[in-house]
Amino acid sequence: MRRNRYANHHKYSGYLALASNAEFFLSLYGEFGRAYLLFEFHRFGQSLGRDERLTSVDPRRRHTLFSETEESELCAQALVNYYQNRGFPSEAEKIEGLNYREGIFCSRGLRALVSKLVEVIEEKRKKGYEVLINATGGFKAESAYALLVGMLFRVPVYYIHEVFQNVVEMPVVPVSWDYSFLAEYEEFFHFLHADLRTKDEVREVLPTIPTEVRSLLTEEERYIFLSPAGEAFFQAYLNRIEEEKIPIFFSRTAWEAFRSFDSTVQENFRRILRKLRLPEVRRNRARSIRIEDVSCFVYPDKKRDERVFFCEREGNLYVCALGRHSDQSYERLITKGVRCWKQKDFTPFES
Predict the structure, then answer these.
(1) Residue 321 sits in which domain range?
(2) Residue 266 — pLDDT band, cuts 50, 70, 90?
(3) How many CB atoms neighbour CB 129 within 10 A?
(4) Are both 127 and 14 inside the same structural domain?
């Protein structure tokens, strides 16, 4: 962690100091008493008016997410009014379920918070904004999940404790997350994410799900759904797939096979190819085949009907063949032999 360059300011002047470093400022603001809040904003205004470094910045945008409590709504509205009156575009949204009911808070509220954080981050990035997260306010669990989202989506997170005199920055972690295990169970995550699922609906599937994946699930009454952490990792995984843009080329043989399939099977292959955009999937989940006349990689490796034979050269993905177990085409390809490097006439494929 490193100090912000405005670290000499108290917390009430620190909010705008942070905002001056970015185009978009996403904040959580929480449980303060009315008198304390008004006192802080009085001091905030005095400090703001005296500091040219804070008043000379261009207007930025602020998006405040607040808990489903009276105190948080008061704080959020005060923030919006304060910034709007000074020319800073601001808005606030209530997160349903972030209240004092423990069961709802843990299962629904935190999950809703994660979903909204991801939604706002992606929306503003598409518009060209740089995003920062101020995780100071709210319940402690809210700050923890805001930090997790910041780490997964590479967004700097800031924090100010009421007794600190400094703004603490938790910068983007310079590591890459391995999402290949999520790719293996993407369809299951989509199934859970699409709607509320009862235990009966997932009872047969759960025994086949490894422990590390089940750790991202939670239960409430008779339902099973993604935990707040599961929501964060799944959304980050989908974001990574959209970011990776490796060019994909099909051989003539692959095109002929693809066009012979019905629309459902074609979509299954498209889903596999989207997963293959991730380097960790190609590196950790694809199987190298080097037997007789077969020299390439195949993915997925097991428990799937559809298989993609591919190789990677000069930053491009070359698909030399497509096979299925259900029609024995996979077995015929293995018997006949597949050598990607001998194939010619590759043309671009848009997955």
Answers:
(1) 248-349
(2) very high
(3) 18
(4) yes
